[in-house]
Amino acid sequence: MRKFVTYKRVSSQEQGKSGLGLEAQERDIQLFLENYADAPFEVVGEFVEVHSGADNDRPQLTAAIALAKKENAVLVVSKLDRLSRRVSHLSALMEERGLDFKVAQMPHADRFQLHIYAALAEQERQFISQRTKSALAAAKARGVRLGPTKNTVAAMVKARQEQAKRDAQKVAGVVLPLKAAGSSLRHICEVLNASGARTSRGGNFHPSLVSRMVKTLEAA
Fold first, then answer.
1. Which of 75, 72, 106 has its CA nearest to residue 8?
2. Which pLDDT score, from 0 to 100, does residue 34 have?
3. How many Cβ atoms sit within 10 Å of the Cβ of residue 103?
4. 115 contacts 87 by C-beta, under 8 angstroms
5. What's residue 128's pLDDT?
6. Residue 101, helix vs strand vs coil
7. What is the distance of C-alpha 27 from the center of its chain?
8. 23 phi-psi bin (left φ>0, alpha ψ -120 to 50, beta other)
9. According to the model, what pLDDT value does residue 161 have?
10. Which pLDDT value is given to residue 21?
């Protein structure tokens, strides 16, 4: 039986961006496992981390790699930059003995192709960064005030909190009884997904989201 370890990562800045959230990564990984993994297969570990991809020191990634090597499992990520945004770090991972990993969005890519893709992506980020700095410097020279005001930030935070409350209330009738009965977060997710319920973004429920919903409902 083929074994897999999944790893998902978001930075605090990326959590609200389309395509970079945990739900999107979970969907990509599940599509990979269902369509490209040898059957039967087993997911022996799932790791989630809120950390910058520019930092190589990530405890959950280290733990995921260690488990994958111990279990002779394949480490699966949604996108290549979920592992790292640095080509040097990705190269080191590619050369690490006993570690095999797959990228869900590029299921047929070999290590050479992944290395080329990472190099091109890093070059593009550097160009975008330089272009952004130039644009901001030009705007500042014209007297443009940069960045959101405190009131704008506070309003955005409040809006997100209110949306989270509304989302949690929609499934409270399922989540709270199951939690009170001692069900695991994963089991609660399975019940919600099997019922046809969807998140506010139209995706499946995952344990970290349900955990936040439980905290929101308990605090209400």
1. 75
2. 92
3. 23
4. yes
5. 75
6. strand
7. 10
8. alpha
9. 85
10. 78
Q: Name residue, tokens 């370890």.
A: 5
Q: Residue 51, exposed/middle/buried by CB under 10 A (0-12, 13-18, 19+)?
A: middle
Length, in residues, of the chain: 220
Tokens 């969807």 map to which residue?
Answer: 198
**Sole residue written with tokens 């520019």:** 54
Rounded to the nearest 5 degrees, what angle is found at the Cα of 11, between the Cα atoms of 126 and 185? 150
Q: What is the mean pLDDT of each run of 10 residues along the chain (220 residues)?
A: 93 53 89 90 92 76 95 94 86 90 91 83 74 77 70 77 87 88 90 81 87 88
**Please, what's the b/e burial string for 56-80 (b: 16 or more CB within 10 A of its CB; e: otherwise)?**
eebeebeebbebbbeeebbbbbbbb
Q: Which residues pair with 103 in a beta bridge?
A: 77
* Interatomic CA distance for residues 167 and 178, integer angstroms: 17
Tracing tokens 């980020």 back to the chain, one arrives at 125
pTM exceeding the 0.70 threshold for the entire prediction: no
Which tokens in the block code for residue 64? 């995921």
Residue with tokens 């080329």: 116
